[in-house]
Write a structure and sequence with these properties.
Blueprint (H helix, E strand, L loop, with lengths): L6 H7 L4 H8 L3 H8 L9 H8 L3 H4 L7 E3 L6 E3 L1 E4 L2 E2 L6 E3 L6 E4 L11 E4 L14 E5 L9 E6 L4 E11 L2 E7 L2 E7 L3 E11 L2
Antiparallel strand pairs: 1-2, 3-6, 4-5, 5-10, 7-8, 8-13, 9-10, 9-13, 10-11, 11-12
Helix pairs in contact: 2-3
Amino acid sequence: MEYPNNLLACRTAARMSQMKVAAALDVSQSEYSRMELGRRQVGPHAEKLADIFGVTTEKLLEFHGSKLETAPPENGYVVTKLPIFGRRVVGRYCMIKFDQEPVEMAEKPASLASNKEAYGVYVPGESMEPRVKTGDLLYVEPHQPVRKEDLVVVGYGKDGLREILQYNGQKDGKILLSRCNPLEDIEVDAEDINTLERVSGVKFL
């Protein structure tokens, strides 16, 4: 019997690994994985999971129909769909607002098949042209180290706002970034940046 839920989307939005969630619940990673796959009832863990992810228990137990497939337990599991996050923020920059659940699910590229933390965002504006254009789909791998001239998704504070920028390094406690259209260099205090996640690929329109 299966017990559909929204754990995968909630965990991905919270940028948490299965291991970290399992530790917070005081269960094994394999046991949490079974819950996420709908093979175990969330049951007594529902309220604590909702608190961990910052959502209601109702949203935690919603199901949006994304299909999961599993590999043998020793290899973990493979997700066939890639969650797409972010809604465009009106303005001239590539600003997006992250919600607690994906705006849609897309086919996951083979290169990301084993990456459970990967997600996608659509480019919402023109400030990074000609490098990427409005509507291009960016593949983001949060665990990868960021290198100079990488495209990155930068998270500011706790309000869910993120911006697509180019990373240019660090200096004197500042993160050096830039926009392309028009060309503009930006310096942001490192303590004001919540997340800095590498774009590893682009699906061009």
